[in-house]
Amino acid sequence: MNVTTSTLPLTVADVDASREFFRTHLGYEVAMAADGFASLTRGAADPAADIVLLRTGTEVLPPEQRHRRAEGVILAFTVSGLDAEERRLREAGAPITMPLREEPWGERLFQMTDPNGIVVQLVEWVTPADPA
C-alpha cells in the first residue's frame, strides 16, 4: 500500500463554524464546498492531514453513521516554534482551552477547541531535563 494523502472526515453540527476555525487559526484552505460539506487542505507540500467536514445527518453517510458527531476528537499536529504559535493564536483570539504546558517526558503542548467540540492540540517535542 502506498498512502498518498491522509484525510480526516469529521461529522459536525455546524460545518461553516468548523471551516472558519480551521481557515482562520490553522491555515487550511477550502478545496471544495457545498451545503453541509467542506473539504479543507493545507496543500500538497504540507504533511498535515486534509479535513472533510460533513454536517450531522447528511445522507451521504451510511444510516448508522449519520448522527455521530466528532465531538471529543483530539486532532494533534506536531509543530516547530510552539511558543510563537501559542502567542499568535492567543493574540488572534483563538479559543485556547488548555494552556501551554510541558510534560516530564518532553512533550510541550496546548489545546484549542473549535465551535463543534473538536480539540486541536499543537505539540512540540523537547529533550526532557531528566530522561528517567
SSE topology sketch:
Layout (H helix, E strand, L loop, with lengths): L6 E6 L2 H12 L2 E6 L2 E5 L8 E6 L18 E5 L3 H10 L4 E7 L4 E7 L5 E7 L7
Parallel strand pairs: 1-4, 5-8
Antiparallel strand pairs: 2-3, 3-4, 6-7, 7-8
Structural key phrases:
single chain; 132 residues; alpha/beta; 2,3-Dihydroxybiphenyl 1,2-Dioxygenase, domain 1; four-stranded mixed sheet; 2 helices; 17% helix; VOC domain-containing protein; VOC_core; Glyas_Fos-R_dOase_dom
Description:
With 132 residues, this protein is an alpha/beta fold. The chain has a single domain (7-59, 69-125), classed as 2,3-Dihydroxybiphenyl 1,2-Dioxygenase, domain 1. The protein contains two helices and eight strands; from the N terminus they run βαββββαβββ. It has helices at residues 15-26, 82-91, and strands spanning 7-12, 29-34, 37-41, 50-55, 74-78, 96-102, 107-113, 119-125. Strands 1-4-3-2 form a four-stranded mixed β-sheet, with helices on one face. A four-stranded mixed β-sheet has the order 5-8-7-6, with helices on one face. The mean pLDDT is 92. Pfam families: Glyoxalase.
Level-1 CATH class name = Alpha Beta
Low-confidence region ranges:
none
Helix content estimate: 10-25%
Secondary structural class: alpha/beta
* Strand residue content: 35-45%
How many alpha or pi helices? 2
Order of adjacent strands in the largest pleated sheet: 1-4-3-2
Mean pLDDT: 92
Q: At the fourth CATH level, what is the homologous superfamily?
A: 2,3-Dihydroxybiphenyl 1,2-Dioxygenase, domain 1
Shape-level CATH architecture:
Roll
| CATH fold category name | 2,3-Dihydroxybiphenyl 1,2-Dioxygenase, domain 1
The SSE order reads EHEEEEHEEE
Give a count of the beta strands, DSSP E runs of length 2 or more.
8
Provide the gyration radius in Å: 16 Å
Distance between termini?
A: 38 Å
Overall geometry: globular
Biggest sheet record: 4 strands, mixed
In total, the number of domains comes to 1
